[in-house]
Design goal:
Strand order of the largest sheet: 5-2-1-6-7-8
CATH class of the largest domain: Alpha Beta
Strand content: 5-15%
Structural class: alpha/beta
Low-confidence stretches: 1-12
Distance between the termini: 29 Å
CATH superfamily of the largest domain: Crotonobetainyl-coa:carnitine coa-transferase, domain 1
Number of domains: 2
Helix content: 25-40%
Largest sheet: 6 strands, parallel
Length: 411
């Protein structure tokens, strides 16, 4: 076993006098990989009962990324606070059982290609006939309609087609994709908000509805500024490396001891503090210095001043000096730095979660803090089908019937 517990005062937060804010909300998560499951994970962190419906072969996320002691690490994080039930939705028996699960749920999350639920007889018309208050969250690459609706669409496609890759990288280099599922995370965050919005609407209308969410459109939402800039000015935003077209100095700079720091001077007051700190106060008197776009046009001159000063000092010296000057800076962390940072430790930003397979696993805590009804991580991702008997037992399916379903490979 790998022990990653360390010393973590936030492993067992103080119990709240109130129930979790999403207690009583039942979510059926039949999505795979990251975008849809992440949305369900966020809801689970705040008390929703999340039932993870997996094909008997398991969610592909179980086979994604690194393993520790033969256990998939990504799965342990993205499937936290969930109960796992196996169910083959290609079979008529599996479909009938799924309808029974959905009949008692508030939200179903799915990310099959458009038309798949309809082919299985599990479309919204069928599910809402049993449960008119059900919200169906449908997440795909391109949405439920339109010329591209039936294309497969992972987060990478969203990163490419939203314009993100076009903007990312050095000016003389190729478009660059993130090395982790960024678009899936953005879509998952958007989807959690969408689901809660639809559930709030249910309080007003008395009925559920369908949420149609596209990964590409989720990414477009966070790239609205560059898109609108091009539309209204005709000027195409381009790759800037680590610089910004809107302000300067804004870059990463190497320190004397081989580390990197990121500096951002979004406002003129911060920019003035930076140039004074690095011994170039005369730059603040230049006519172009008073606007972000003006400073951006002189980014090379500012980078030379800031980068040269930083290169002569260690990371700790640079960060301390910027802090004393009240100028914005952040050390470029690797994950060892993240796990050792005293501020993140004091905040409990990374928590230790007990796990029967890994002993403990450290992972980020809930995304935000609520003073009266905080979120919590009660368990890491479950074993495949760990709760099948428990969940199907809640539907009245006993041991004999469960055994027969297993023999027919329905579960």
């Amino acid at each position: 076993m790998i022990n990653r517990s360390g010393s973590d005062p936030h492993q067992h937060p103080e119990p709240s006098a109130f129930p979790p804010p999403l207690a009583g909300l039942k979510v059926i998560d039949t999505a795979t990989l990251f975008a849809g499951p992440y949305a369900a994970t966020l809801l689970g962190d705040y008390g929703a009962d999340v039932v993870k419906v997996e094909h008997p072969d398991g969610d592909p996320a179980r086979r994604y990324g690194a393993q520790a002691d033969g256990v998939p690490v990504w799965w342990k994080v993205v499937a936290r606070n969930k109960r796992s039930v196996t169910l083959d939705l290609h079979t008529e028996e599996g479909q009938r059982i799924f309808r029974r699960l959905a009949a008692g749920a508030d939200l179903v999350v799915e990310n099959f290609r458009p038309g798949t639920l309809e082919r299985w007889g599990l479309d919204y018309a069928a599910l809402s006939a049993d449960n008119p208050r059900l919200v169906l969250l449908r997440m795909t690459g391109f949405g439920q309609n339109g010329p591209y609706a039936h294309r497969p669409g992972f987060g990478t496609v969203g990163e490419a087609m939203s314009g993100l890759a076009h903007l990312t990288g050095t000016p003389d280099g190729p478009p660059t994709l993130p090395s982790f599922p960024l678009a899936d995370a953005v879509a998952g965050l958007t989807a959690a908000f969408a689901a809660l919005t639809a559930l709030r609407a249910r309080e007003l209308t008395g009925r559920g509805q369908v949420v149609d969410l596209s990964i590409v459109e989720s990414m477009l939402g966070v790239l609205a500024g560059p898109l609108a800039t091009y539309d209204l000015t005709g000027v195409m935003p381009t790759r800037q490396g680590n610089r910004s077209p809107n302000n300067a100095p804004r870059n990463v700079y190497r320190t004397k001891d081989g580390h990197w720091v990121a500096v951002a001077a979004t406002t003129v007051s911060i920019a003035e503090r930076v140039v004074r700190l690095v011994g170039r106060p005369e730059l603040a008197e230049e006519p172009w210095f008073g606007t972000g776009s003006g400073r951006a046009r002189h980014a090379g001159e500012l980078d030379a001043a800031v980068g040269g000063w930083i290169a002569e000092r260690t990371r700790d010296e640079v960060v301390d000096a910027f802090e004393q000057a009240q100028a914005a800076i952040g050390a470029v962390y690797d994950f060892a730095d993240v796990l050792q940072d005293p501020h993140l430790a004091a905040r409990g930003s990374v928590i230790s979660v007990p796990d029967p397979e890994l002993d403990t696993i450290r992972m980020p805590g809930p995304a935000f803090r609520l003073s009266d009804t905080p979120g919590s991580v009660r368990s890491a991702g479950p074993r495949l089908g760990e709760h099948t008997a428990e969940i199907l037992g809640e539907l009245g399916i006993g041991h004999a019937e469960l055994t027969a379903l297993a023999e027919r490979e329905v579960v």
